[in-house]
Write a structure and sequence with these properties.
The chain is α+β, with helices and mostly antiparallel strands. It has a domain of 27 residues. Helices cover 33% and strands 23% of the residues. The chain contains 1 helix and 4 strands, in the order E-E-E-H-E. It has a 4-stranded antiparallel sheet, covered by helices on one side. The longest helix has 27 residues.
Length: 83
Amino acid sequence: MSEYTAIFKQDGEWWIGWIEEVPGVNCQEPSRAALLETLRITLNEVLEANRADARSAASDDFEEVASPYEAPSARPMAQRTWL
């Protein structure tokens, strides 16, 4: 299982967040808990769509190799939330 990093903050009455490793995955919700759940759902949907696009582009007769990904640590661990 891969780990992804949620970057989020409260902005007025809303919580906004992004997935650091995947461009385009960003959400807004009225609570922190709802935001993290929506980010998880959106991330899964984007990853599945990207997988389908890659497999479609490769057509038939392709190889697939899983590669572990280790995100660089730009901030102290206490300030990071993994999904």
